[in-house]
Structure formats: structure tokens, C-alpha cells
Design brief:
Elements: H1 13-29, E1 37-40, E2 47-49, H2 53-58, H3 66-69, H4 76-88, E3 97-99, H5 101-108, E4 114-119, H6 124-131, E5 138-142, H7 145-152, E6 160-164, H8 173-187, E7 192-199, H9 202-215, E8 220-226, E9 238-244, H10 250-265, E10 272-279
Parallel strand pairs: 1-4, 1-6, 4-5, 6-7
Antiparallel strand pairs: 2-3, 7-9, 8-9, 8-10
Helix pairs in contact: 1-5, 1-10, 7-8, 8-9
The protein binds S-adenosylmethionine.
Organism: Basfia succiniciproducens
Protein name: Ribosomal RNA large subunit methyltransferase J
Active site: 165 (proton acceptor)
Length: 281
């Protein structure tokens, strides 16, 4: 089943948190001269037109990136993220385009770094390939992203980030991410793994937490922003990132940024945030 299209959701509050975490991890990786490997297991198309039929239909970006666009009081880390998006918008007066996770990474990769972008969807894959044909150190592949974790780790660089962002339209994805991390970790225990998850029903996202707790893997940080309290009604109330082997600054950076993001992205006052160790060092 491949009905999920990220263009309906691009730039929403979940993307904002996901892409800030991604950017902060990559900033940390680029502090060392030695190259690193970036694997995006579920890439989407990489670049989104916010005034397309899909985006306009849901207008989710209006409650995400659009709320940060004109502000002059952004924390420095959030400013750097907005600047990355501004680059795609020819300097930034008008918000027309949004970067997917592959384009956040591609803008930050240096010549010594290497990226693999994986996407399975028959329509999205050619769009992804087209969007990245100019990037010399990026390969685009049509495959199951979880398979590529097994197939390409450990990377020759012995440093890297694996970003896993499945659609969770199939409930198995909650277990498949845990399996993929366990397989990846066996091959590459020093790698950084970042998994995005939605909170639709809390029991489902807890499967990931429980699976990882049971795996024996240590150093697992959970970062979450909720726009509403948990509920058994339809719809996503929160989303987050689970990061294995996070850079040491990430916890403090997110504890500083999330109160700001919660206020600005959820002006209704129903929001909350958390940063917790699922398993400490
Ligand atoms: N990571 C992207 C971003 O932040 O811009 C968004 C990815 S979107 C949430 C999930 C994507 O995974 C969709 O484009 C979908 O077609 C793709 N997909 C679904 N199952 C997949 C699989 N097994 N392997 C690779 N891609 C898959």
C-alpha cells in the first residue's frame, strides 16, 4: 500500500521539529573534517511547492513553517533552519517552497560526505531523482528503505546518520523501524539513527519505545512536540524524533528550542513538549 503522499503535509509542525533535529545532527557531523554517510530511508520527493494542489488543499504548512517565517525573535538554531528554507525561496520574502529531509541534508553535505536517498513510490521516485540529479555526492535509489539499512551499513566512512521516516499507513511500520534499527546497530553501533514517529494513538508509538527498550541498545533520546493532549479521536496530536547516539549537545539544544516552538506553533495554548532519555548512556 503506497497511498501516502508527503506533499499534503510538507512544512507542517511535525516537519519543522523533524527537520530541525536533522539539521542539528548534521551540523554536528560536519564539525569534523572526515566525511560521513547520510541514509534517508523514506525520502519523499525532496522539495515541495507549497502552492500546489496538494499543499493548498490541507494548508498544513500554515500551522508549521509559515508561523516561523516572518519572526525576528527566532532562537539561533531555529534561525539557521529557517535560513535553509529561505535559500530555496530565493532569499525569502515569500514562502513558496519547502525542503524535504533529503534537501535539508543535501544543502549541508560537503564534497567528502555521501548521501543515499531511498524512495519506493512509483510516482515520487522519478521526482526525487530529478530533484537531485545535480548533486554529485548523492545517489537516489528506488527500493525498500529498510532493506538499504541492512545493505549499506556499515558505511566505509564509519560515521553517519540514518534517518527513518516511514508513513505509518501500515501499522507494521512501528515494528519495522525497530527491526531496522536493531539490524543497523548490529552492523554500525556508532552510527546515529533518527526515527520520526506520529502520535495518533499513543499505544502505537509506544511500540517503538518498548521495542527499543527491549533491544539492549543504549543512548536513546526521545524528543516530542504535542499540539493537543493524547486522544482516541482521529488525527495526529503530537510527533517526535527518537535519536540513538545523539550528538551530546542535542538534548540541551532541543530543551532550549521546544518551549519557543510550542508557543509559536501552537498559539492556542494546547501544546506541550518533552525531551527524555528512553535509555541513557
Ligand atoms: N522524509 C521525508 C521528508 O522529511 O521530507 C518525508 C517522507 S514521507 C513521511 C514517507 C515516504 O516514504 C513517502 O514518500 C512514501 O512513498 C515512502 N515509502 C513508503 N514505504 C516505503 C518503503 N518501504 N521504502 C522507502 N520508501 C517508502
Amino acid at each position: 500500500m503506497l497511498s501516502y503522499r508527503h506533499s499534503f503535509h510538507a512544512g507542517n509542525h511535525a516537519d519543522v521539529v523533524k527537520h530541525i533535529v536533522e539539521m542539528l545532527i548534521i551540523e554536528n557531523l560536519t564539525q569534523k573534517e572526515k566525511g560521513f554517510y547520510y541514509l534517508d530511508t523514506h525520502s519523499g520527493v525532496g522539495r515541495y511547492r507549497l502552492f500546489s494542489q496538494e499543499s493548498e488543499k490541507t494548508a498544513e504548512f500554515e500551522e508549521g513553517i509559515a508561523r516561523l517565517w516572518q519572526r525576528d525573535d527566532l532562537p539561533e538554531e531555529v534561525q539557521r533552519y529557517v535560513d535553509l528554507i529561505k535559500k530555496l525561496n530565493y532569499g525569502g520574502k515569500e514562502l513558496r517552497y519547502y525542503a524535504g529531509s533529503p534537501l535539508i541534508a543535501a544543502q549541508m553535505l560537503r564534497p567528502q560526505d555521501r548521501g543515499l536517498l531511498v524512495e519506493l513510490h512509483p510516482t515520487d521516485f522519478p521526482l526525487l531523482r530529478n530533484n537531485f540529479k545535480e548533486f554529485k555526492n548523492i545517489i537516489v535509489k528506488r527500493d525498500d528503505g529498510f532493506q538499504q539499512v541492512k545493505a549499506t551499513l556499515p558505511p566505509k566512512e564509519r560515521r553517519g546518520l540514518v534517518l527513518m521516516d516511514p508513513p505509518y499507513e501500515m501499522k507494521e511500520d512501528y515494528d519495522l523501524v525497530v527491526n531496522a534499527i536493531v539490524e543497523g546497530y548490529k552492523r554500525f553501533a556508532t552510527g546515529i539513527y533518527a526515527v520520526w514517529y506520529p502520535v495518533v494513538l499513543r499505544q502505537q508509538s509506544k511500540r517503538i519505545v518498548k521495542g527499543l527498550e527491549a533491544s539492549g541498545i543504549r543512548k536513546i533520546l526521545q524528543i516530542e512536540l504535542a499540539v493537543r493532549p493524547d486522544s482516541d479521536q482521529r488525527g495526529m496530536t503530537a510527533s517526535g524524533m527518537i535519536v540513538i547516539n545523539p550528538p551530546w549537545q542535542l538534548e540541551a539544544q532541543m530543551k532550549k528550542i521546544l518551549p519557543y516552538l510550542t508557543n509559536v506553533l501552537v498559539p492556542e495554548g494546547t501544546g506541550s513538549w518533552s525531551v527524555n532519555w528512553i535509555v541513557p548512556e
